[in-house]
Amino acid sequence: MIIENTIKDTSSILHVINDAAIKYKGMIPDDCWHEPYMLEEDLINEFDNRLRMFGYLKSNELVGVMGIQELKDVTLIRHAYTLTNYQEMGIGQSMLQHLFKLNKSSHLFVGTWQDATWAIQFYEKFGFIRHTKKQTSILLNKYWEISSKQIENSVVLEKYIPLQ
């Protein structure tokens, strides 16, 4: 079951994010990695910036999270993570399809680490197209608030969805 999370669910959301993010350790630049991967104040800041977080419950346990952030002319998929023990069970697919239904923009973007090939392949499977390095840099600077080091090591994928 997919539910919308609130700021009151911060602890559970952080548990999922920080468990799943262990996969990035050693593959992203050392100065971009820290433990925990996401801090409580960072997640609260995301909620303050109109991030809507959704969670996948299995036996009343939050096992996956995925956020959506509607900006002026685009929608961003943010913070998509599944607990390590629940990966590759279709949870990410279910959550992404749920967010497709909520989307109000014809341009849906997701950013991820360029070495996270599993994440890139996941989004490509659902029709996202990877942008060039130059276009990625432009989009990350326009829509995300991240460090220049993270911009250097990231990729943006886009799915165009004609609005009805």
Give average pLDDT, whole number: 93
String of helices and strands: EHHEEEHEHEHHE
How would you sum up the global shape? globular
Tally of helical segments? 6
Overall radius of gyration: 15 Å
Largest sheet: 7 strands, mixed
Largest beta sheet: what is the strand line-up?
1-2-3-4-5-7-6
* Percent range of helical residues: 25-40%
- Range of strand content: 25-35%
List how many beta strands DSSP finds. Answer: 7
Low-confidence stretches: none
Distance between the termini: 27 Å
* Multimerization state: single chain
What is the SS-derived class? Answer: alpha+beta
Can I get a quick summary?
With 164 residues, the protein is an alpha+beta fold.
Structure description:
There is one protein chain. With 164 residues, the protein is of the alpha+beta class. The chain is built from 6 helices and 7 strands, in the order βααβββαβαβααβ. It has a 7-stranded mixed beta sheet, with helices on both faces. The longest helix is centred in the middle third of the chain and has 12 residues, at 91-102. It is globular and about 40 Å long.
